Each structure stands twice: as C-alpha cells, then as structure tokens.
C-alpha cells in the first residue's frame, strides 16, 4: 500500500443522486465517469474499496402515496441494483475488476451478498459494489452502508453528499448555519442533523466507524480524503 494513504479499506456511500448530478434523476455518463476516474486513482494507491449505492435517482420510497410501503421500498431496492450495474460497467470500462453483490438474490446478474466472499474480493484488489440495500423494507442505503462497513471492517465510511459538509442547518435556507469540521455521532442524533438517518448513525456509533461527509460535486475529494487532507466533516465519538 502507498505510504501517502490514510485508510486501507474504505466504504464509499454514493447516493443515487450522486450519479445524476444536477439532473437529479437518471445516470449521466459524465457524472458517473468523473466519480469512477477518482475511484480508480484510489484503487491504484492500494486502497481496498467497497461501495454502497443508493437509488434515489430512480425511485424514492417517499413517493409512496397510494402505494403500499413495502412495495415502494422494494422498488427502491431494485433501483439501487440498476445503479450498481451502471457503476460496475463504468469501473470495468476503466480496467478495474469489480464484483456486484446484491442483498436480494439475482444470480443472473450479480453475486448474492456473502461477507467472506466480499472480503476475498477486496483482498484481491477488486471493488465490491453492494446493491439492494440490506434487502429489507423500512431501511435505507445509509443503513446498508453502516452495516456493510461493519461487516467488512472498513476503516472509514466516505459519505458522498450534494452538500460539502455537515452544517447545523441547511446553509441554502439559513445563512447563520454553522459548518462543522468535526462532530460526534451523538450530536448528529441529538440535533437531528440530516447526515445519515438515525439507524445508520447509531450503527456507526455502536461500531465506532468514523464517517467523512463530503461533497461529491468535486470527485477529487475522494482522493484527497484518502491522502489525509481535511475535507468535509469528520464524524466520530
Ligand atoms: N430501501 C429499502 N431498504 C434498504 C435500502 C433501500 O427499503 O435496505 C429503499 C427505500 O425505499 C429507499 C430506496 O430504497 O428510499 C432508495 O434508497 P435510498 O433512499 O437510501 O437511496 P439514496 O437516497 O442513497 O439514493
């Protein structure tokens, strides 16, 4: 592993929106391509990379309206698998070996999630993309990120956001919002800050997994964080 690297094994949480850029929906070649270029740089530094991808660019569980909640949530999980395929395609086009693992079995297109296999892939320098969330309704892909990070013993979760850090309020609405360089899990929970949902935040807290919350509009941030630069907000105990 390269000496300039701060973390050996990372879990990158990409929301669906991160792949859509300004368009908010769908997947855009330039947007996903720029992110994958940076992921490639990180892999070339000798870092083991796992990715949990969301699905909000295709389907939001919140659209529930008349639809039964669990049906809507399963549609959300399927959306994350579409994004997983897009990421796999984009990374492999750049010569990086990947494996897509889903929490809902789809053997024709992906491996089922098997922790030991995932770790083996990572050790062999393959990127493992986890899609399908945790495979259960009423959860989010943030929780999947926290859970998979704990299972694969990731050193950190990089939480890619459309905003560049954690703030006390939405800086677009509240001009007095304070930007945090560091914050604790408990502060996030107590102040109900919109970083990750409370289930995911608690899971990270219980398992002492640090988070770096950063802006994905500059994909170079991924490389900078790996090299130890202070970017975004560090969440820890
Ligand atoms: N979802 C779910 N269980 C999971 C993960 C996701 O039910 O374990 C559903 C849920 O409806 C969610 C949607 O899939 O709203 C898309 O995931 P998420 O909102 O976390 O994606 P992101 O906001 O990261 O794009």
CATH class: Alpha Beta
List unreliable stretches of 5+ residues.
none
Integer count of domains: 1
Percent helix range: 25-40%
Shape from CA axes?
A: globular
What brief labels describe this structure?
single chain, 237 residues, alpha/beta, Carbamate kinase, two-stranded antiparallel ribbon, 8 helices, 19% strand, globular, binds uridine-5'-diphosphate
What does this structure look like?
The chain is α/β, with parallel strands linked by helices. The protein has one domain (9-236): Acetylglutamate kinase-like (Carbamate kinase). 38% of the residues lie in helices and 19% in strands. It is built from eight helices and eleven strands. The chain has helices at 16-20, 29-44, 69-93, 115-123, 141-151, 185-191, 198-206, 220-226; strands at 9-14, 48-53, 98-102, 111-112, 127-131, 156-161, 166-167, 179-180, 182-184, 211-215, 233-236. The chain has a nine-stranded mixed beta sheet, with helices on both faces. α2 (29-44) packs across α3, α2 (29-44) runs parallel beside α8 and α5 packs parallel to α7. The radius of gyration is 17 Å and the shape is globular. It starts with 8 loop residues before the first strand and ends with a strand. The model has no long low-confidence stretch (mean pLDDT 95). Bound molecules: uridine-5'-diphosphate. The site of uridine-5'-diphosphate has 23 residues, from α1, α3 and α5. Uridine-5'-diphosphate (UDP) binds at residues 15-17, 54-56, 60-61, 72-73, 76-77, 79-80, 133-134, 136-137, 139-142, 144.
